[in-house]
Amino acid sequence: MIACCGSTTHCCLRHEQINLTLGQPYMQEQDDVTSQPALVLTREIAESLICEDEVIRASEYTQIDADAAVLIGSAGKLLILDGLKTLPVDLAKTLSTKSTIWSLEGLSVLDDDTAKVLGESDEGLNLPGLTSLSASAAGEIANVNGCDLVLDGLTTICEAVAANLARYHGQEESTLSLDGLTEISEGIAAELKNHRGWLSLGGLSEISDEVALQLGKHQGENLYLSSVKNLSDFAIRALAEHPNCVELGGLPEVQIARFKELHAEQKKFHEFASYVRFALHIHDPLNPYQRTTDFDGLVDEVQSCMDCDEDIRRTRQLRDLLNQLNLDV
After folding, report:
1. Which of 53, 204, 243, 280 has the fewest Cβ atoms within 10 angstroms?
2. Residue 108 — φ and ψ, nearest 5°?
3. b/e per residue 288-312 (b: at least 16 CB within 10 A)
4. Structure-derived torsion over alpha carbons of residues 207, 211, 216, 220, reported in degrees to the nearest 10
């Protein structure tokens, strides 16, 4: 561990003194990506940054020299390095020796080897500048164990990438953020529904009935669709099947009210279905005949007494749920 000077004020002053007295020793001729002078984080600057707090905020620097990287990597800090446009795997490994790379907003491309290093983090990853991502790289960064995986720069993804990103669980209430996606296919939605954390798709302004049907089966706690402007009644019904919270703040009030009504009914049905599961498991040993109950026949009998299509639909749902139980032990 590098010794800290112990005074935040002193460190800030020292940082300013380096800038003033040394002029621009860390300015190189040009940064190839931005066509601006490259600002290099040197060892001297790194020493001052390490003393400030538990997070090293170095977003203005577009490059890091080797000595500074070794020092920062051994400091055991969270790293915000939003100025970096590239991150070779060797530099990523050095910076991750004891420290943790948390935010790389300026990174637009991520190779598989560097993704593997980042994926070993116990913190989240903020990578909103990525404009493309391979399936293998997606699989690597999905291994991070911290809260929030932010990939809002992706405007399109394939099903393989969606499948790998859906594996990201993180910690409790972790969010997979894909707010850059402006449209998704039924296949991509079918992969993303397997995600078990919070899923943010705030860039979608419209979704098809088929996509809604898949997203309604999302396995996570919350689903954010805050930019969707209009939904068919079928799509509203499909999303109302979601077991937890769906954010639909962009819809007309009448559609929001319709969703809330259906979602509340669906929640009651899920609670009832859960009770049925519990009750059957409790009473199975006491009533062996219950194991061979003809649920299809039972539903047909009950439906003959019904005149409400909604009740019939719910009864069929219950039949399907009960038929999935293994009662033939």
Report:
1. 53
2. -105, -20
3. eeeeeeebeeebeeeeeeeeeeeee
4. -100
